[in-house]
Amino acid sequence: MSSSDPRARRYLGWGAATVLLLAAALAAMTAAIDPRGLLGPTLGWPTLCQAGLKTDEHDSKPLLAALGRPKVILVGASKVQKGFLQSDADRVLGPGAFNLAMSASNFSEIADMAEDAWRGGGVRSVWIGLDYGGFSAPPSGAYRRPARLDADPRLRALWHGWLSPQAMERATHIAAHPEQCRRPLYTPRGFRAETRPGDPDPVGTADLRVGPGRDPLTGQRRSFRAVTTLPKAQREATYREEMQRLRRLLGEARSRRIEVVLFIHPRSRVYLRALELEGLDADYRRWEGDVTAIVAAAHDPHARLLDFSDDARFTGSDAGVCAAGARPTCLFYDAAHYTPAVGRRILEAGATAPQ
Predict the structure, then answer these.
(1) Which of 6, 123, 144, 319 has the fewest CB neighbours in a 10 Å radius?
(2) Is residue 23 part of a domain?
(3) Looking at the domain assignment, is residue 111 inside a domain?
(4) CA distance 79 to 84
(5) What are phi and psi for residue 73, nearest 5 degrees?
């Protein structure tokens, strides 16, 4: 059958129309679901799903940093991701704070996220949670810089939130899992959605209370070994690079007159014990001292370091026992990750600390 045959032309026309209809339906579904949480806040489009980020943080938060135009940002790895409520940040820091933390990030990836956010303009304050392990581990690929960052924000939102293959693929996934439409993983500003009042993570990663198959001490020691088993020369080279990255971050922040609040995370008594058993006490103190020296050498009146690592409120003998029925008031989900009850104290301490 030749293409000049009327039947052939009719079949080709039907095929093309079918493809166009399917593409239009997929685009309409993507717009209605708004899987990356960009179309509603950026363009004001009405969507069928609850407002918020419905995809993995490594997919959605780099876009949020580039398109959200935040004034205050919190960045870090999983401790910052889990440990802060949007309501607390709004109360202490003022409305409009964004949580751009992503799990498994090393310090360079955290710095890249912060810098991409403030290069978009509008950022006046950055809160950075510092992880001991994040200065010895190589980049994990947690932060994937979005393409087309130099385009108009509305065009970027249209592409990344609606027309890109990634957005359509994620919309298709959410259509097959409607609970993600009703209950987004994150608020539109990147904070963990509260699954019940005061607690964004009722399951957590593991209770501090030792139970079958979830000994938090063993888990934390295993986490340390993922880094300490790397060749020493590699660890040292990574450590030097990450410290230099901290210097560059502070230098750029100073040139832009951006306030930087760095905080060393509180440690549970189980975390302290794991450091001791792995022989990492001295290495931890070295890291702590190097960070302190770099911040002091920056001579930036807008940069501060808050060290909660030895705060007795968190390391005390009774601190951190987290019974499942009392999660909103307990201090740690597991050996390393603290609850919003701790995050609230960090925000309050930072907001009242001398400038």
Answers:
(1) 6
(2) no
(3) yes
(4) 9
(5) -130, 145
Distance between CA atoms of residues 41 and 29, nearest Å: 18
Residue 257 has which token pair? 């007159």
- Give the predicted TM-score (pTM) of the model: 0.84
- Tally of domains in the chain: 1
- The answer, yes or no, to whether residue 235 has pLDDT greater than 80, is yes
With tokens 């918020």, the residue in question is 52
pLDDT, tens only, 246-262: 999 999 999 999 999 99
Kindly report the CATH number assigned to the domain that includes residue 325.
3.40.50.1110
Where do the DSSP E strands lie in 268-336? 303-307
Residues 6+ apart with CB under 8 A from 174: 33, 35, 49, 54, 55, 180, 181
- Report the pLDDT value the prediction gives residue 281, as an integer from 0 to 100: 94
| Tokens linked to 225 | 């070994």
C-alpha distances in angstroms, 122 versus 85, 96, 102, 281?
22, 11, 21, 40
- 8: number of Cβ within 10 Å: 12
Is residue 315 within 8 Å of residue 59, measured between CB atoms?
A: no
Q: Render pLDDT for 133-164 as a digit per residue (tens, 0 to 9).
A: 999 888 877 677 766 555 566 676 677 777 78
